[in-house]
Amino acid sequence: MVRIRLTRRGSKGNPAYRVVVANQTSPRDGRFIEILGHYQPTQTPEVLELKEDRVVHWLSKGAVPSGTCKSLFRQRGILKQIHENATGTAPAEEPSEEASEE
């Protein structure tokens, strides 16, 4: 099974993580298929950079995110975007200012 998970980088006491796609049987910091981004929780504000199109691609292929990755994707709105694409519902549009003036 393919999973989306974090691999640890950085020095002792200053963790930094890569968001990667890896086989479930691979070690945490071992072999991976693709790097999807990075996450630095100790910086203020937290740094989270993702290749969102690649995350959506892997999730559509059946990759399972770890708990932490799932919560990071939820913060970014990626899971909501995937749900909307799957169900065919678009977010409700706000009325434009031009329409309200008429």
Provide a descriptive summary of the structure in words.
The mean pLDDT is 87. The termini are far apart. The longest helix has 10 residues, at 67-76. A hairpin with a 2-residue loop joins strand 1 and strand 2. The chain has one domain (2-89): 2-Layer Sandwich (S16 Ribosomal Protein, Chain: A), CATH 3.30.1320.10. It is built from four helices and five strands, in the order E-E-E-E-H-E-H-H-H. 33% of the residues lie in helices and 32% in strands. It is α+β, with helices and mostly antiparallel strands.
The total of helices stands at: 4
Mean pLDDT: 87
Largest sheet, order of strands side by side?
4-3-2-1-5
Radius of gyration from the alpha-carbon trace, in angstroms: 17 Å
**Overall form:** flat
CATH fold-level name:
S16 Ribosomal Protein, Chain: A
Q: What's the level 1 CATH class?
A: Alpha Beta
Which parts are unreliable, with pLDDT below 50 for 5 consecutive residues or more?
none
**What is the second-level CATH architecture?**
2-Layer Sandwich
Order of helices and strands: EEEEHEHHH
Number of spatially distinct domains: 1
Oligomeric state, counting identical vs distinct chains: single chain
Describe the largest sheet.
5 strands, mixed
The counted number of beta strands is 5
Can you describe this structure in just a few lines?
The chain is of the alpha+beta class and 102 residues long. It has four helices and five strands; from the N terminus they run ββββαβααα.
